[in-house]
Amino acid sequence: MKIRTTLIAVIALVIFTLSACDKDEKAKKNSFKYNNKEAEIGTVIGIAYGQTEVNGVYWIAMEYLEKSFTVFYENGYPDSLAGKGDVLLLTFLSNKEAEITPGEYTVKPSNDASKAFTIDGDEETGLIIGFDITNENDPPYVEISGGKVTVAKNGDEYEFTFNLSTNVNSTVTGYYKGKPVIFVDKKKKSLMAQNWFPGKAIRN
């Protein structure tokens, strides 16, 4: 009888643990938070810019667009954008040309040499607040100055966990799990190749 009671208790504990894990998984939402605002992530697009000044290290710029945006494509390539919202920009330095290798990526200090498994703060890495394609004025832009992003990958599906700090002593945290498309920029940072890109707001 005692063995049966113990077995029932063990089964109940296992069920409770699995249920708790399932709830934690469901609680995760594709979003990023800044200044008490949570922006739900919709489309995520990457551009592989090619090799950096260091052999075997490649730029991959990722743009996490708030769900309020709509992206239009031409010939399979992002061409224009409609809507208004926030955009999280992160330029990963990977050891693969068109893939972000799983691992932990830390924001590298400005002007440091390129190194795999870091995030390039000298490139498009920051938060655009209230980006509006119809507004000619530059939107507020906050630089990402520190922190890390943990990247996991299963087939074509990526999982990003953000834990970042900014140049105005605030934080950007969040999570994204999905299948972003990473486009290879054959023109190597040609503005004409990405004439719609939210990043242009800070490149001009």
Can you characterise this structure?
It is a single chain. This protein is mainly beta and 204 residues long. The protein has one domain. It contains two helices and 13 strands, in the order αβββββββββββββα. Strands 1, 2, 3, 6, 7, 8, 9, 10, 11, 12 and 13 form an eleven-stranded mixed β-sheet that branches. The termini are far apart. About 3% of the residues have low confidence.
Short description:
With about 200 residues, the protein is mostly beta strands.
Q: Secondary-structure blueprint of this entry?
A:
Layout: H1 2-27, E1 31-34, E2 37-51, E3 58-66, E4 70-74, E5 77-82, E6 84-94, E7 103-108, E8 118-120, E9 126-132, E10 141-154, E11 157-166, E12 171-178, E13 181-184, H2 200-203
Parallel strand pairs: 2-13, 7-8
Antiparallel strand pairs: 1-2, 1-12, 2-3, 3-6, 4-5, 6-8, 6-9, 7-10, 9-10, 10-11, 11-12
Any key phrases for this structure?
mainly beta, eleven-stranded mixed sheet, two-stranded antiparallel ribbon, 15% helix, globular
